[in-house]
Write a structure and sequence with these properties.
Order of helices and strands: EEEEHEEEE
Shape: elongated
CATH topology of the domain at 22-101: Immunoglobulin-like
CATH architecture of the domain at 22-101: Sandwich
Number of strands: 8
Mean pLDDT: 89
Radius of gyration: 26 Å
Strand content: 35-45%
Number of helices: 1
Structural class: mainly beta
CATH class of the domain at 22-101: Mainly Beta
Length: about 140
């Protein structure tokens, strides 16, 4: 079994392997950054994200910058959410991450799957070895 990955171009001219995050549910996520004004901010979800993700219920993760650490997401709606700092005069910037289930897949959590046995490739003759005799069985 192999992990899912992507070959990503690197500035040094090589490609580097980056792996996918795995989860027992099928999720989409979006990220962004916004400024705080008077301790609040309104984040509108990208309409393309909202078109493919279940935005009636989603998770919001917040990271404050510039000394802001006590942030909370409130008033989540299908189109976005408000972020509020404990300090009502707070400014600065924060980042957010929204994780929502996909609309197009109703995946069962930890679904049992049957994995086929690995393929076994026939051996190739060594370079320079004489060719194998033809198979003389009838019908072949």
């Amino acid at each position: 079994m192999r992990a899912k990955s992507a070959a990503v171009p690197h500035p040094d001219g090589t490609h580097r392997r980056l792996y996918c995050v795995e989860s027992p549910d099928s999720w989409f996520e979006d990220f962004g950054e916004a400024p705080l004004e008077c301790g609040e901010a309104t984040v509108t979800l990208d309409p393309d994200f909202a078109a493919v993700a279940e935005t009636a219920k989603y998770h919001v993760f917040l990271t404050g910058y510039d000394g802001q650490s006590d942030l909370s997401a409130c008033d989540r709606t299908p189109s976005g959410f408000r972020e509020r700092a404990k300090n009502a005069t707070a400014g600065g910037c924060f980042s957010w991450r929204v994780v929502a289930k996909r609309k197009d897949i109703a995946a069962a959590q930890f679904e049992t799957v049957a994995v086929p046995p690995p393929l076994v490739m026939p051996s190739l003759p060594e370079p320079g070895a004489p060719p194998a005799p033809p198979d003389r069985r009838p019908g072949i």
